[in-house]
Design goal:
DNA_Rep/Repair_Clamp_Loader; DNA-directed DNA polymerase; Rossmann fold; alpha/beta; globular; five-stranded parallel beta sheet; 2 domains; P-loop_NTPase; 5 strands
Length: about 250
């Protein structure tokens, strides 16, 4: 269990310790569930955590950290592991269809087939319903799903109910903004700028809501650049809620 026992970005608290103990015991006793949901406030670290868990599941030494399975899985290039990500701000049904096709195929290497779904809260209704059918009736005992989310409150309740849910707490430097938050801002800022250009060109595809959101993000970025810290966390939290509900 070397990988799970030595994750340096988890805070040392009872919640994380209990989670690691339970996951390690499942691996040791070969009682792995077919569906998990990890949630916390940093998607990048949730992804690294999920890959470490996947490596520990398939490693013959339960996560030695040194074998090719562990190394390649942590890098996200092991053939038995599929990482699914949204395009833009929606995780569409086509992504879930690709996941189902991956699961239906025979394993390329020894071990279980593991699907990691990043930003699973961004699934639209069609995608969530399609995934739900797979979670309710998994194709075999060798298929595992790990859903990652920063906001479990907007997940489809029936999807959540099919998973073993684990909340995680991550370490951050006190004066360092969360990298994942900046990635979210960058993604939507880029989208908003494109929409502004499209509006200027009188293209009907442009989203006025995206433009409004972009202008609000720009104001926050200006405050960050100026070193203004008053209520900044609260402001960004409100912006992020708007983002994730779009």
């Amino acid at each position: 269990m070397k990988i799970l026992q030595n994750i340096d970005f988890l805070t040392e608290d009872n919640v994380n310790r209990s989670n690691i103990m339970l996951l390690s015991r499942m691996i040791k006793d070969d009682t792995i569930s077919h569906a998990y949901m990890f949630y916390g406030n940093n998607m990048e670290l949730l992804s690294r955590l999920a890959l470490s868990f996947a490596a520990s599941i398939n490693c013959v030494d339960n996560g030695c950290g040194d074998c090719i399975i562990c190394r390649n899985t942590k890098r996200g290039v092991y053939p038995n592991v599929l990482v699914v990500e949204p395009e833009g701000n929606i995780l569409r049904i086509e992504k879930i269809a690709g996941l189902q096709k991956f699961i239906s195929l025979s394993s390329y290497n020894p071990g279980k087939k593991i699907c990691i779904i990043k930003e699973s809260e961004l699934m639209n209704q069609e995608a969530a319903n399609k995934l739900l059918k797979t979670l309710e009736d998994p194709p075999d005992d060798d298929s595992i799903f790990i859903l990652l989310t920063e906001d479990i409150s907007i997940m489809l309740p029936t999807v959540v109910s099919r998973c073993l849910v684990y909340s995680w707490n991550f370490k951050f430097n006190e004066d360092t903004p969360v990298k994942a938050d900046f990635e979210v801002m960058e993604k939507y800022l880029n989208e908003g700028i494109k929409n502004i250009i499209m509006l200027q060109e009188n293209q009907s595809r442009a989203s006025t809501a995206s433009v409004d959101l972009t202008l609000r993000l720009v104001e926050i970025l200006k405050k960050m650049e100026a070193g203004v810290k008053t209520d900044l966390e609260k402001e960004f939290s409100e912006i992020r809620k708007v983002i994730l509900k779009k």
